[in-house]
Amino acid sequence: MEIKKERLRSLDVLRGFTMFWIIGGSALMHTLADATNYQVINWLSNQMHHTDWDGFRFEDLIFPLFMFVSGVAIPYSIGRKLKQGVSKKKVLVKVAKRCLILIVFGVIYNNAISFDFANMRYASVLGQIGVAYLVAVAIYIHSNLRDQLLWVVGILLGFWVVMTLVPVPGFGAGVLTPEGNFSGYVDRLLLPGKLHSEHYDPQGILLMFSAATITLLGAVTGTLLINEKYTKIKKTGIMAIFGVVLVGVSLVWNIWYPINKEIWSSSFNVLTVGLSLLLLSLFYFIIDVKAYTKWSFPFVLIGLNPITIYMAYRIINFKYTSEFLLTGVMNIFDNFSGVILNIGVLGLEFFLLFFLYKRKIFLKV
């Protein structure tokens, strides 16, 4: 089985689609809801808020979808290096360095360039991506497909057992509340600095390893996509079928172990992989099977430089520049001033991404 050398365009597009909501898409939807008060847009805007605890909204899918997409790329990038004769040790060292860089970037993203070490938040979105990727790659390069699936099942079931059967002092076992869950207890004991929430961190120590199953299942999906024994149509069907199955499994599991992003419950992980498979099958069918690609270029721009725009969104005040340039238009269309402001923000971000794209500047971590 040979690994394709070309990039999987649908993967770049789906990665960009995911990041679009993070860098301004959600904010645009909220301002559209405020300006129009249309029922459908109000519903969509509500979907762009995280659930407080148990439950699920579209916003809860964005982060795990990015982790899944990162995993799909593993057989293309890591698999190719192994085929070229790069040693597993060298691969792991490079991925470990990438993990450390992402952890550092995550600390900077959370705290700016601060030296208040005692009050920093060290857990982060980028840190979780890095750790999950490292765990997924380590398992991928040292096991076959069957064993990778066994790892996934073992981690998911093991995390369920730990979260429901291991007692927390003062609460007992299986208390899946912000104060009483076992993951939060571990964070309070071991994580330095401050937590995202008072009692737990949604990117806490145990949760990073639980969420690694999402990236690993992405790698399993990538193995399917590089397999030339199957036609593209068949690959689309396999992803869609398994997506539906996993969504069903998660909804059943939810009866005993609630779907919850804040503690990355195993049922939540299974649900997000199922939905990610459905989305990838759709994007793969449209882009790689039917070759309808012209519409996707803006998402490709984001997908080729996701970490760059993620950090830029935090560091650069795009909103200030957008307001400076569009104040007159905003005054004319006062009711839609928020919509115009956010369109300007997205426009400036796309201008930056296009500038980097034309000069072939891509931040590789």
Protein architecture, described:
The chain has helices spanning 9-36, 39-47, 59-72, 74-83, 88-111, 125-142, 145-165, 182-190, 205-226, 232-253, 266-289, 297-304, 306-315, 318-332, 337-358; strands spanning 167-168, 172-173. α1 crosses α11, α1 (9-36) packs parallel to α13 and α6 crosses α9. Strands 1-2 form a two-stranded antiparallel ribbon. It has one domain (9-358). A hairpin with a 3-residue loop joins β1 (167-168) and β2. The protein has 365 residues and is mainly α.
Tell me the layout of helices and strands:
Elements: H1 9-36, H2 39-47, H3 59-72, H4 74-83, H5 88-111, H6 125-142, H7 145-165, E1 167-168, E2 172-173, H8 182-190, H9 205-226, H10 232-253, H11 266-289, H12 297-304, H13 306-315, H14 318-332, H15 337-358
Total separate domains: 1
Largest sheet: 2 strands, antiparallel
Number of E-type strands: 2
Measured between the Cα atoms of the first and last residue, the distance is: 28 Å
Approximate helicity band: over 70%
Strand content: under 5%
Major sheet strand order: 1-2
If you compute it from the alpha carbons, what radius of gyration comes out, rounded to the nearest whole angstrom? 21 Å
